[in-house]
Amino acid sequence: MSKQINVALIGNPNTGKTSVFNALTGLNQKVGNYPGITVDKKEGICKLSRGVKAHILDLPGTYSLNASSLDENVVIELLLNKNDKNYPDVAVIVSDVENLKRNLLLFTQIKDLKIPTILAINMADRMSRKGISLDIELLEKELKTKITLVSTRKNEGITDLKALIENYKTLSTEPCLDTSTIDTEYFNSLKQAFPNQDLYKLWVVISQDANFGKIDRNELDFSKFKTKSKSELKRLQQKETIKRYQFINGVLKEGQTIDVTKAKGLRAQFDRVLTHKVWGYVIFFVILLTIFQAIYDWATVPMDFIDSSFASLADWIKVTFSGGGKLTNLIAEGVVAGIGGIVIFIPQIAFLFLFIAVLEESGYMSRVVFLMDRIMRRFGLSGKSIVPLISGTACAIPAIMATRNIENWKERLITILVTPFTTCSARLPVYLIIIALVIPEGRFLGLSYQALTLMLLYLIGFGMAVFSAYILDKILKTNRKTFFVIEMPSYKVPLLKNVILTVIEKTKTFVFEAGRIILAISIVLWILASYGPGKEFNNAETIVEQTYPELQGEQLENKVASYKLEHSFIGIVGKTIEPAIRPLGYDWKIGIGLVTSFAAREVFVGTLATIYSVGSALDDDDKTIKNRMANEVHDNGKKVFTLASGISLLLFYAFAMQCMSTLAIVKRETNSWKWPMIQLFGMSLIAYIVALIAFQILK
Amino acid sequence: MSLTIADLKKGEKAIIVDSSSEDIPLKLLEMGCLPGNIVELLQVAPFHDPIYLNINDSYLAIRKETAALILIDIINE
After folding, report:
1. Are residues B26 and A488, on separate chains, in Cβ contact within 8 Å?
2. Counting Cβ atoms within 10 Å, is residue A614 exposed (0-12), middle (13-18) or buried (19+)?
3. Nearest to A40, CA basis, from A350, A401, A430
4. Alpha-carbon distance A518 to A186, whole Å?
């Protein structure tokens, strides 16, 4: 096995670190998780010359070694732990040429850990436009490093960077700053107490918040040493920062010249419009409409195609392997339908992340956060919550995945928890058929009652999301202090490669992480609907033929299917829960619909179609299923679908957490079953109570 | 009566005098919010919160409550 060089890519956010990563690794990359936390771990392989390979780890963006988030903590943990298998042989600090000063702060810190370090100055193509010129030779000498100018946009400097990585052994490991000059007295006593430890590493361990666990403080014996209070430590950290900036300013004074008269930038002009008190919101609204339109409308073309392809595949399997019996049915109706239920979300997820990636890459997203923060903060949300909440109107799954951008954990958690209240597209088929059944035709101020009801349902969903965010904000406690500092990056034309890789990565995450759980539950639901105890289920054909001797062909088949479903396990579940849902105005048949809705809400319509034995081809038989539902009566002869039970059902669907795919993705994003369970029971309880009140008042 | 960044008007520049309050996140200091550096208010969101600043060539937005902790001297041009 040839020797692999471990490379860590480190840098501030918005420096194009990911572009450098993509340029080095191409498609040879994978995204995983750091054990126990939901921070993405991106790694890849880069081929150097003569068969040497480099393992590239793209560490989360950070401004310094002082961690204020889990993401940043990952960086420190790795760099302090020499035994970690990913401990870098060489660190590449990616920095933005436009803000070298700030980027060098992190550089000097990494350097002081005595890790061989390369400085990659990215976006070098912007230098002339900004009037920046650098004396590379002088900078290399002062910073005791090797520097390469990189432009991922023009694909320049990557070869040089690879060559530097390959020759990492020649790099100096001399530090930039003598740590003890921060506070001579304190650091001397530290040195005496721990003579065998590296002073700067010691300082990093000591100055970090205690809850950043894995760096083992216990190995250090603090008994001999007087520790400082938190505020004293903070003052020292501030002093360290000032010292570092003094050093950096000194270096840049000689090594960098900026001719302000040559600097051209569109930042001010763009900002004037995009963060304008009126136009800023108008533009944001238009962009949202476009995204919404794409997810809601454009995505339906590939979705319909996927839907019909999987349906024909299932049919084909049934016909071709008709001798396979139960196994064939399991594969066709359980596995294939289950996989189809996952794949069908891909277009919506891809579209959403296409837009989000473009908005992020261009620098626009920070402006939205700036505009929305104050408004959203009233409800315990962040400016960044607005995108998930709006995209939840199409589908909660990509919306919840989009909350990754919210750094503050509490604000992110609240966003995840309330997003499923917004009316997703899967609720629409249910709404449409029930509205058509129970809401009278007629107009109010020229608008039809039915359209008004639909609009009201959307408003109720959004209102409930905001209201419950407000309540959760009061309930949830976090011990982590939260603050809000966001960088406003310069505007850039998004790189196509980055955008596409983001879309692929997010889609893959969904398919493989959430997909497994969705598939498992689909199979369970299928088994419950396809098997039943006792002779009613197993002798369904004979019983139906005897009871309805006049039925023939398809009608007979439908009746058998309906009879089987009634006596299957899931039918029994429906009958068992009937006493509980009776006060809401539902019977056991609707109960089955509620249970199968967990596969996806729109399954409700198909399930009712099966139960009422009208076949599942909804479009042709729309009238028939509507008529069947309209004529459905309780044992006592009263109609099942009245205004009261209809409204009750609409409200139940508006609030209940009935989507296993969403639960699966929440599990993934929060890394625990606690939050999806809270959603499942909390939302369903709210739904039950509201539906109960509505039915009891209206009946 | 000392002024803070929260008192700045759009387009005004100032020199940071003190940023040692304990409630100022370290991240902000690391981005250059240190005594002697220049700060300029570029844009304000509705309700004057958050505010969009250029501090020491870093462009960033902070909430008003944080801005009120950073003492400044306004530069009159």
Report:
1. no
2. buried
3. A401
4. 57
The two tokens of residue A436 are 């058509």
Q: What is the pLDDT of residue A24?
A: 92
Structure tokens belonging to residue A677:
């369970």
pLDDT in tens, A294-318: 776 788 788 889 888 888 888 898 8
Instruction: Name the 3-class secondary structure at A473.
Output: helix
Q: What pLDDT is stored for residue B65 in this prediction?
A: 86
Q: Do B42 and A271 touch (CB under 8 A)?
A: yes
Considering only residues A220 and A515, tell me which one the structure prediction assigns the higher pLDDT: A515
Sign of the four-CA dihedral A617, A622, A624, A628: positive
Residue A340's pLDDT is 80
Chain B: residue whose CA lies nearest to A237? B26
Residues of A with CB below 8 A from B52's CB? 271, 275, 370, 488
* B47 Cα to chain A: minimum distance (Å): 8
Token digits of residue A446: 């020229």
> What six digits make up the tokens of A449?
């009652």
* Chain region(s) in chain A for CATH 3.40.50.300: 4-170
Interface probe, candidates A101, A245, A485, A491, chain B, greatest B C-beta count within 10 A: A485
Q: Which of A238, A373, A490 sits opposite B45 (nearest CB)?
A: A373
Task: Evaluate whether ipTM surpasses 0.90.
Answer: yes
d(CA A676, CA A671): 10
Query: Which structure tokens are listed for A265?
Result: 């930038």
Predicted local distance difference test score (pLDDT) of residue B73: 92
Contacts of A486 in chain B (CB under 8 A): 60-61
Q: What is the mean pLDDT of residues B54-59?
A: 90
Between A99-103, A450-454, A609-613, A652-656, the lowest mean confidence (pLDDT) is in A609-613
d(CA A387, CA A405): 10
B57 vs A: CB within 8 A = yes
Q: For strand A117-122 and strand A90-96, is the pairing parallel, antiparallel, or unpaired? A: parallel
Cα-flanking dihedrals φ and ψ of residue A34, to 5°?
-70, 140
**Closest Cβ opposite residue B25 in set A277, A373, A483:** A483
**A612-649 tens-digit pLDDT:** 654 443 444 444 567 777 777 777 778 888 899 999 99
DSSP symbols for A96-147: EGGGHHHHHHHHHHHHHTT--EEEEEE-GGGTTTTTEEE-HHHHHHHHTSEE
Instruction: For chains A and B, count residue pairs whose Cβ atoms are closer than 8 Å.
Output: 100
Q: Are the CB atoms for A373 and B50 separated by under 8 Å?
A: yes
Q: Percent of chain B scored above 90 by pLDDT?
A: 52
* CA A650/CA A455 separation, integer angstroms: 12
Average pLDDT value for residue range A414-437? 87
How far B8 CA sits from the closest chain A CA (Å)?
18
Judged by CB atoms closer than 8 Å, whether chains meet at A68 and B28 is answered as no
A234-A240-A242 Cα angle (round to 5): 105
Q: Which domains does chain B have, with CATH numbers?
A: 3-75 (2.30.30.90)
Reading the block at residue B60, the tokens are 């960033």
Q: Which CATH architecture has domain A4-170?
A: 3-Layer(aba) Sandwich (3.40)
The alpha carbon of residue A33 is apart from the nearest alpha carbon of chain B, in Å, by 25
Q: What is the mean pLDDT of residues A51-60?
A: 90
Torsion angle of the four alpha carbons A517, A519, A524, A529, in this order, in degrees rounded to the nearest 10: 140
Least confident of A353-362, A411-420, A441-450, A639-648: A441-450
